[in-house]
Amino acid sequence: MSSLSTGLRQWRERVSALFQDHEIFVRTHGHVRFLRVSAVWQKRVALIAGLVLLAWAGATLAVLVNQLLSSGERAEVAQKQAAAAAAEARIAKYRDRVAETAADLEERQNQLDEWQKSYFGDEPAIPGEAAATGAEAKPAPLKTSAIDPNLPPEAQALARIEARQEAFSARLLAAVSARAAKAESAVAKLGLDPASLVRSAAAGRGGPFIPYRGRLGRAGELGKGFAALEGALFRMEVLERTLVAIPSGQPANVLMLSSSYGYRSDPFTGAGAMHSGLDFPGPIGSPILAAAPGKVVFVGQKSGYGNVVEVDHGQGILTRYAHLSGFTTRVGSAVAAGQQIAKMGSTGRSTGSHLHFEVRLNGAAVNPRRFLEAKADVLEVKADARQRVGALAAGTGGAR
Ligand SMILES: [Zn+2]
């Protein structure tokens, strides 16, 4: 402190040394005047001059600062304008995206509605839900965490709808897959190959009619989930229709000769011969019944068979009823399972009144026993399938 006060005193002494009393002689018109300029007066003048200088400097500085500030503000305004323009561009882009997303969502919803209608009719709810099938169809969680919180509100709303749509489609896929799996196992128990049935239906090869109402693979562009759903629906459709087409109903209310299919000695020649069906002996005129829903495709005579009726059940499955004494149906008629189509008789190569019953799969005779003796579990799945496919199966028997 003492050094500071010492320094201050020295500085003051130095300043005081600058201002000293001066005496000035002024001679005007012969008179000599004597002006005295004191140190105090000099100091006052210097102080005033200093203050004026300081005021000028302050004003100049204020103007400068003001200018600097306003240029900063201008920069800020420009920055804000640029940000607003960028935001506008972003919003325009969002608007395009939102419109595009909304169009996508609508297209997907249309597809879901179409599937719901064509596969499940007017039932309001998804049938075959996890509760009914016992399958572990766990609903997919809503992916709300995946929704960008920076999106504008309308885009977030669409993203939420999209997430719900995906969850719905995942639940539908689980339900449809569970149904398809049940049908697959039932079809396999009947001795048919589910994979080849689905393959040949997908390839659209002749014989089995194509149940799919639309172009397979169309849903692929709506996303992976939709492609999977389309595949599962197609599979379910083919397998359930096959089950419905299975001739598991008794073709006559009489006992069958269970050992009659296969090689046996011909009743006329005694030589070994292939017997391609099952025989049901009974009184002449006994009602002959369609073993499954389908369409009558032949009514008339065939060499050796006598009077014959053939019913196409779709999926490449056909039943033939032979040695009849009369017909109660016509070609083109849609018949239900158990509906009478003819009367038992002994026409053609027959040794007595009986029904010769044949099942043909894609043109080749197969043993009808495995269908007629289908177990309760298979019949249950078949009944479920018939309930869904329902009236369609009776009306759209086949396309041969
Ligand atoms: Zn026979």
Automatic annotation (TrEMBL):
Domain M23ase beta-sheet core residue range list: 274-368
Organism field: Sphingopyxis macrogoltabida
SUPFAM superfamilies: Duplicated hybrid motif
Signal peptide interval: none
Keyword field contains Magnesium: no
Keyword terms, alphabetized: Coiled coil, Membrane, Signal, Transmembrane, Transmembrane helix
Residue runs in coiled coils: 77-118
Name the UniProt record assigns to this protein: Peptidase M23
InterPro entries: Cell_wall_metabolism_enzyme, Dup_hybrid_motif, M23ase_b-sheet_dom
GO molecular function, one term: metalloendopeptidase activity
Cited CDD domains: M23_peptidase
Stretches that traverse the bilayer: 45-65
Pfam families named among the record's database cross-references: Peptidase_M23
